[in-house]
Design brief:
mainly alpha, 4 helices, 0% strand, 77% helix, 79 residues
Length: 79
């Protein structure tokens, strides 16, 4: 049963699964190092999940062009 679940997750949601696991591992390493801030742990896991979700949709992991346009629109107000 568990094997089938993992096979389905890997086949249908590869990016979200892989990067969520990486996020959990990074979060556990962060917690073991003596820093018990759960908000940082949740932020790490959510960030990795969100990047995996974008990868599953076929979008770039980090939307550099969109961020650049957004920043330029914000900074244009001060010119």
């Amino acid at each position: 049963m568990w094997i089938r679940l993992w096979e389905q997750l890997w086949a249908n949601h590869r990016g979200k699964t892989m990067l969520s696991i990486i996020g959990v591992l990074l979060g556990i390493i962060y917690l073991i190092c003596g820093l018990w801030d759960m908000l940082i742990f949740v932020l790490i896991v959510y960030t990795c999940y969100h990047i995996g979700k974008r990868v599953d949709r076929g979008e770039p992991a980090v939307p550099v062009e969109e961020m650049w346009r957004w920043l330029m629109d914000k900074w244009r107000l001060f010119r």
